[in-house]
């Protein structure tokens, strides 16, 4: 049975981008509307004073203007609070759930990742983006890899974030809020034709459906055997830690990783990046997804241990 990330962070780029625009509009109103209202309030107070303080119409107008000023100052908070009431399932039914409020609060980070990804196109060509679930970068050799290997990453939103942080000429097949079903139906088929001699397939999945551990092991063991025949090697990266350990998620992650380590066959290299991050330290933006510096650290560690 799949394990849901209860109250998980929103990683829906479309919603995030829309909400970032909404927040820009609200920020503008939060500045302009109170200024206009304060000017009107000043006029109303002047009229009230000139009438000797007896005009009830002016008093009522002043109260309404004060309430309106408070409302516009609190508007962004009110919108976020209301959106938190709406919990939605991931549209691809990967098992992840989140609130619309999470998308609203994480809007700037999501838009920043979109812009970073768009600006990191390869060789002046089409900018890379994982908003298209079938997108992968062109098959190119990583110039920074001393073994002249092709690095192929398959993963979920954390992999999307890492691609955004590091750029480069690697091949990426990744999409937010995904797990085993997506990997088998889309993630791996996207890059199957790219797997050639000396390619390194790097899998970073599991956090969205930790209950599918047996399916992961069976499928990756099978694919690793096939890929070895092509001269490629396979790496399964341990599910990385969160800083929300109080909800028991890290305990489940540790159990997943241990079973993964014990049951992957000899054609799959298990890489324990989880322990490395716990030892060296890491920073998240929302408890589950990492800052660009941490993504760069993860990427460097993986490359140095291939």
Report on this structure:
- The chain is built from 10 helices and 7 strands.
- By secondary structure, the protein is of the alpha/beta class.
- It folds into 2 domains: 13-102, no CATH class; 119-304, 3-Layer(aba) Sandwich (Rossmann fold).
- The strands form 2 sheets. A 5-stranded parallel beta sheet has the order 4-3-5-6-7, with helices on both faces.
- Strand 3 (150-155), helix 5 (157-166) and strand 4 (171-174) form a beta-alpha-beta unit.
- The longest helix has 38 residues, at 13-50.
**Binned strand content:** 5-15%
Q: Give the CATH topology of the largest domain.
A: Rossmann fold
- In total, how many domains does the architecture comprise? 2
State the separation between the terminal residues, measured CA to CA: 32 Å
- The geometry reads as elongated
Q: Tell me the structural class.
A: alpha/beta
């Amino acid at each position: 049975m799949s394990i849901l990330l209860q109250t998980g962070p929103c990683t829906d780029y479309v919603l995030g981008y829309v909400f970032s625009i909404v927040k820009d509009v609200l920020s503008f109103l939060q500045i302009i509307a109170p200024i206009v209202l304060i000017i009107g309030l000043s006029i109303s107070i002047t009229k009230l004073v000139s009438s000797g303080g007896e005009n009830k119409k002016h008093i009522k107008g002043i109260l309404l203007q004060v309430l309106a000023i408070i409302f516009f100052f609190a508007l962004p908070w009110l919108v976020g609070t209301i959106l938190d009431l709406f919990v939605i399932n991931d549209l691809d039914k990967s098992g992840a759930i989140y609130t619309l409020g999470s998308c609203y609060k994480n809007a700037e980070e999501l838009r920043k990742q979109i812009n970073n990804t768009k600006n990191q196109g390869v060789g002046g060509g089409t900018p890379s983006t994982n908003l298209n679930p079938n997108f992968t970068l062109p098959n190119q050799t990583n110039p920074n890899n001393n073994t002249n290997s092709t690095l192929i990453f398959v993963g979920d939103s954390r992999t999307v974030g890492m691609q955004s942080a590091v750029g480069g000429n690697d091949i990426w097949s990744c999409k937010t809020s995904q797990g085993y079903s997506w990997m088998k139906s889309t993630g791996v088929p996207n890059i199957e034709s790219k797997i050639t001699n000396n390619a390194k397939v790097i899998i970073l999945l599991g956090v969205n459906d930790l209950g599918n551990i047996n399916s992961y092991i069976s499928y990756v063991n099978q694919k690793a055997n096939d890929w070895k025949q092509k001269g490629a090697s396979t790496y399964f990266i341990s599910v990385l830690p969160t800083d929300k350990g109080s909800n028991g998620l890290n305990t489940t992650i540790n159990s997943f990783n241990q079973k993964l380590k014990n049951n992957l066959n000899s054609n799959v290299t298990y890489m324990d990046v989880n322990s490395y991050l716990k030892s060296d330290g890491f920073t998240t933006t929302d408890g589950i997804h990492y800052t660009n510096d941490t993504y760069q650290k993860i990427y460097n560690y993986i490359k140095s241990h291939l």
